[in-house]
UniProtKB/TrEMBL annotation:
Pfam families in the cross-refs: FA_hydroxylase (PF04116)
A GO CC annotation given for this chain: endoplasmic reticulum membrane
Alphabetical UniProt keywords: Membrane, Transmembrane, Transmembrane helix
InterPro entries, per database record: Fatty_acid_hydroxylase, Sterol_Desaturase_Related
Main localization (coarse): membrane
Protein name (Swiss-Prot/TrEMBL): Fatty acid hydroxylase domain-containing protein
Protein's UniProt keywords contain Ribonucleoprotein: no
Source species: Solanum lycopersicum (Tomato)
Compartments it resides in: Membrane
Similarity comment: family membership: Belongs to the sterol desaturase family.
Amino acid sequence: MSLGRNLTYGETLWFNYTANKSDFYLYCHNTIFLIIFYTLVPLPMVMIELLRSKKFEIYKIQPKTTFTLSEMMECYRKVLITFVFAVGPLQLFSYPIIEWVGIRTSLPLPSASEVFWQLVVYFLVEDYANYWLHRMLHHYKWGYDKIHRVHHEYVAPISFAAPYAHWAEIIILGLASFLGPLLVPCHMFTFLLWFVLRQIEAIETHSGYEFPWSPSKYIPFYGGAIYHDYHHFVGESCHSNFASVFTYCDYIYGTDKGYRYQKEVFEKRREKLKMEEKVNGSAPVFKSE
């Protein structure tokens, strides 16, 4: 197809890589990227968890809970098995739908503004759908006991536990992630980027640390690690913080009241311990409420 102009540098790279590859092969990159980023992105948090530095300990949301390297690697191993036996088949069977809605691989590549606004739509759609699907898994006892309980084995989340879940939950909540691209079809580049960003976001919210310098702090209505950590801490009886990314759904539907109270308590406790650290010159010791 002639574009009537010279290819950009990015389009040249895309053309050289994709020219001799089928659309299905390119689509399968989604699983490959998920595994790569799931493996690499949590590594800094693994190091922080193992070092237990005084500088970082103050930002740990549940500091009384610690994990060994073997425990974290066991979580990683189980998630990879789920990727192979749940995400892999989902990729295989979902491709005809992706092809039908028009996820294209051809040139031109989308503009930066097009990519940005499509990603905004995908995050909003996924967050809303995930809210109700997640809430459903808590509302129905069978859904929690047979499916969602697996994810809540981690009362204090760690980065590797972001996709740690029953295979059925991976598929159920995965539908929310696919919904945006199905409603607003995009280029394969945007599609792959969307799932990578969603995976990185999930890893951050399960990190167990609330860092004040995180760039996500500047995203309006963003929940973050402390927001989702509360949901894990309360566990089965939790009727709060069901949304995956933002806070607006929980606010609108009144499922964030317990969290808002506990957050005030947590912030006051953390400020008090920061002052104690300055006075005593030692790491603060948090006590669970």
